[in-house]
Amino acid sequence: MSQPRPRPEADAEPPPHERRHDTRRRHHDHPGTHASHRPTDSLPFTGAGKLWLSTFRSHILNPWNMAFALLLPMFMYAMFGMTDVARATQTGRGNLAAAMIAMMTTYGVILVGGSLGATLSVERTTGISRMYALTPIQPWVILLVRLTALVALSAFITLITFSFGLATGAQMTPGAWAASAAVVVALSALGALIGLACGYTIKGENAYSASAFVMLMGAFVSGMFIPLDQLPPFVAQIAPFTPLYGAVQAIYAVAGTVTMPTAAWLNIAGWAVITAGIAWWGASHDTGR
Asked: CA 4, CA 206: separation in Å to the nearest integer?
């Protein structure tokens, strides 16, 4: 029997390791492959819409979050703002009751922002946050999505509480109501940044405890519940360095009670930069593990 002729050298099948290298070269040399056709410009935002909706839904459907954000401000306003004195006392752009509902709403939306710390701590404990590293979404996009979702939720809360105040004797000019709502919604971003900073740097339930402590102490020391001139002198000296001092002064200014001091502007800008930097560092470190 005649033996089969050996195949020409050119037709011989290369060893397996050479086939793997050849496949890689073909994918690298031919830009028309499937991988090169991926929309690289939109990759960082892939899944951002679903994450935004999930963040918004998880907070608005959480009864404890909404109790703190809605019931607590309205209860505190009912105690101190729904009085004849508050309705009769006039400020620069309305009455004292309107200033109080704006202040209490600010505290409510800041508390909602702090709840981000609890959400992130759960994600970090269960490993969900590390799974983001397997997706195209970038850490700064995650921060932006969560921040905008909380701002949208704050706008919803502000609409309800301001309507309640308007129906119960709070009075301001239409321009003052609009300006107050815009300031409250903008200040909610500061609470969200504090919550993000705590959530990305502190694990477990301690994250929410830390953010709640910062906000509660900051509210008292900054004069949110009791005016600074009625507190001990040392409180007024340390107030400009606390996280919520600028927020309180902004509400007073938009209500026509005081003029916004330069220290309040610097306070808001400084704490926004600090908390945003901590949150960004924590998000980058968390997804990079």
From this structure: 76
Distance CA 197, CA 176 (A): 32
Which tokens go with 67? 């109790």
Residue 36 is classified by DSSP as: G
Neighbours of 188 (CB within 10 A): 29
Please, what are the averages of pLDDT over each run of 10 residues along the chain (289 residues)? Answer: 50 51 46 41 69 83 82 91 92 91 93 75 71 74 84 92 94 92 92 85 78 89 90 93 94 86 94 91 67
Measured CA to CA in angstroms, residue 133 lies from 52, 168, 199 at distances of 17, 49, 17
Residue type, 267: N
Q: What is the pTM of this model?
A: 0.77
CB atoms near residue 25 (< 10 Å): 10
What's the first-to-final CA gap in the chain, in angstroms? 65
